[in-house]
Amino acid sequence: MERDFYGVVRTYDREVNGVNYRAMLHGAIMHGGQLLDPQYRGRPADYFGPGSGYGRLFAALNDTRPGPRRIGVIGLGAGVVAAYGRAGDTLTFYEISPKVIDIERREFTFLRGLAGEGRHRRRRRPAEPREGVAERRPAPLRRARHRRLLRRLDPMHLVTREAMALYVRHLAPDGVIVFQATNRYIDLLPVVKRLAAEQGMEAVLVSDWPESQEGVGYWMSATDQVLVTRDAKLLQHPRILEASERIEERFDLPTFTDARHNLFRILK
User: Fold this and answer.
1) pLDDT digits (tens, 9 = 90+) for 226-268
2) CA–CA separation, 67 vs 61, rounded Å?
3) What pTM, to 2 d.p., does this model score?
4) Of 96, 235, 243, 249, which residue has the fewest beta carbons closer than 10 angstroms?
């Protein structure tokens, strides 16, 4: 357990069903974790399992886009998304807390499991989306256009019209944004759908409810994730189509902006 300006970061290890797992928490929020047994160590779990929006998206991209990718992830956590990286991909993790970066380096191996040089750097202005960065480059970056995947999280200033415009400016034309919408208390789905529609993009919900609690299945979490893209063909890939749902529009809900957003309007 360690503390910095942004709060308390801690890890803990547990063993259930003969499977060992290490979790990271920032305050009371789960920020991913890693299966510790050698045969499972590189396998993504919790919110990032193969049935999640992340897992299904990367499976579809592996089938349809063989080239290298540029992937941006807001929030390092345990670095689980790096498990989906391939040789030639470039992954950049944007992290505001230096303790999270330090603990990820010591306690988890997702980034270390990638080949090539990596670096962590911090910037001064917390309002900037690149304020803190943990980056790993598995291979030299080619000069061709790379597809980017941005992972989005609350707090609410990250799901506003201004924030969405910023993400889209950094997104390849056929890129994809994944919004982590798993939340017990607020319904982010109509907020994300409205933001996507304003940018001329489609948004679909992928919910994952692991069927088994046996073995590794115990460490797979139920999730709601939203895929946002202009690439309608990608959303028709079987791995996405079989699990995706339409998001209902809420015409009474105004678009969230930096100056105007109201959590009470989206309480569950």
Assistant:
1) 999 999 999 999 999 999 999 999 999 999 999 998 889 999 9
2) 10
3) 0.85
4) 249
